[in-house]
Design brief:
11 helices; Lambda Exonuclease, Chain A; 285 residues; alpha/beta
Length: 285
């Protein structure tokens, strides 16, 4: 059984050779960094807060020491990644401290704007890390996880929320990147199919958590901003067709990998590719 994910689709769309080396040849190595540690930690803290708010009480959620929770989670993630990386530090203590300070500012904004970000009245928390497991074709399944899933009880609508940590937010280029924004559209389709919920009853949004805010900005910039990608029928069809093309290009009968060429898309991103650095990409040897 082959298992595919949005991240695989994203890498294939960016560079097919990188995808081949990582997911087919299995030559990738653990290469974590402070950005991944911070992203995972912020997810866990906010998800825990929402779990308490919706399933216990808002008052009790607001009494949580989120700064301590973030600090403790960062340390746990740091140690976990260190143990999985031959006992090498995944980042410096200075980086850990800087990101912790940034995280505290995000959490302060989060609680101060809670009513705008997460209304409680009339809403329920359906799931945290909702697992999606859908058959794409015989032998190939899609696996994904929804960060936060809410239900508007008045409108009987579902809201799929994806938390994204970013240094300064998303640029217009990133917001218009159809591969990047297709993640939520795929989740919307698979959740609709799994639970037989009309697509019109499912909303999607990204919540972008920004570490850095320009001090000289003429206008106030929120630490957390919502971004709703186009997710009507044309956009849904485009995302699905692109994803299906990826699956059909890589996997044949019963999930067997198709033996074909996987070209390298040479460009600036190659500078951060582990396979170029390790001399494994044929385009750079």
């Amino acid at each position: 059984m082959a298992r595919v994910s949005y991240s695989q689709f994203g890498m294939y769309s960016s560079c097919q050779q990188q995808f081949k080396l990582k997911y087919i040849d299995k030559l990738g190595i653990s290469n974590t960094n402070i950005h991944l540690i911070f992203g995972t930690s912020m997810h866990e803290v906010i998800q825990h807060f929402l779990d308490v708010m919706y399933n216990v009480s808002k008052k009790q959620a607001l009494e949580l020491d989120l700064n301590k929770l973030l600090f403790d989670t960062l340390i746990v993630q740091f140690k976990k990644e260190k143990e999985g990386n031959e006992n090498k530090d995944p980042c410096t203590q200075e980086e850990l401290g800087e990101f912790y300070d940034d995280g505290k500012k995000i959490l302060k904004y989060f609680t101060s704007k809670l009513d705008k970000l997460y209304a409680k009245s009339g809403f329920e928390l359906v799931a945290i890390e909702q697992r999606l497991d859908a058959e794409i074709k015989p032998g190939v399944n899609f696996i994904g996880y929804i960060d936060v899933l809410l239900r508007d009880k008045v409108k009987d609508e579902y809201i799929i929320i994806d938390l994204k940590t970013a240094t300064r937010g998303w640029s217009s280029y990133q917001k218009n990147d159809k591969v990047k924004t297709s993640q939520m559209l795929l989740y919307k389709k698979f959740y609709s199919d799994k639970y037989n919920i009309p697509l019109s009853k499912i909303k999607v949004e990204y919540q972008i958590l920004k570490r850095k805010i320009p001090e000289d900005s003429e206008y106030p910039i929120p630490r957390i901003s919502k971004f709703v990608p186009a997710n009507g029928k044309p956009s849904m069809n485009m995302a699905w067709n692109s994803f299906k093309f990826f699956v059909d290009s890589v996997y044949g009968e019963n999930g067997d990998v198709i033996q074909t060429t996987y070209p390298t898309k040479k460009g600036k991103p190659c500078d951060w590719c582990e396979f170029k650095e390790r001399g494994l990409c044929p385009a750079w040897t």
